[in-house]
Write a structure and sequence with these properties.
This protein has no helices and 13 strands. With about 170 residues, the protein is mainly beta. The mean pLDDT is about 95.
């Protein structure tokens, strides 16, 4: 899949072929569900954008909004790398909450299972602090992208936090 860069089409780096199913823009079909023991359940919409510039890296941006008010919520941006010749994948992520993380895991067909390998945060990050994130992204047989995110904090064990399904919009 080619991606535009400065008005010209750039060929996908062959290293990224196993992840090419992610490329493009995805928007939530219906609001996703957010839950966690320490917060009130909420519904959200989200837009994901995965692109490349010919390097062996996928660039991404995730933007979430409150389903009823459309107020901006969570934002993440970063890069996805795959270890050449393997199924090892890494997400390098910066979040608007002040959290920076590296998630690593395995690609199995059209499913990515990732978990935190490293976390950093701003000195005045809101407590309780996130200690671990596990993420599953999968392309379903119906062509929809599904994401489930689980999280552990200082005072909560690893618990499902987010679940949402997307359709490709571009």
């Amino acid at each position: 899949m080619a991606s535009p860069t400065n008005g010209t089409e750039v060929k996908l780096n062959p290293v990224l072929l196993p992840l090419s199913w992610l490329l493009g823009t995805w928007e939530s079909d219906e609001p996703g569900e957010g839950t966690y023991p320490s917060i009130k359940p909420f519904r959200y919409t989200e837009k994901l954008h995965f692109s490349h510039v010919g390097q062996p890296v996928i660039n991404f941006m995730f933007n979430a909004f409150h389903a009823e008010s459309n107020k901006p919520l969570h934002r993440e941006c970063g890069f996805i790398r795959i270890q050449q010749g393997t199924t090892r994948v890494a997400f390098i992520i910066a979040q608007n909450s002040g959290l920076v993380e590296i998630e690593e895991g395995e690609l199995t067909g059209n499913q990515l299972k990732l978990q935190t390998q490293s976390l950093g945060r701003i000195s005045f990050a809101k407590e309780p602090h996130v200690q671990q994130i596990c993420r599953v992204l999968q392309l379903r047989p119906d062509g929809k992208l599904e994401q489930t995110v689980s999280m552990a904090t200082d005072n909560q064990p690893l618990t499902q936090h987010l679940h949402i399904t997307y359709s490709r919009s571009a």
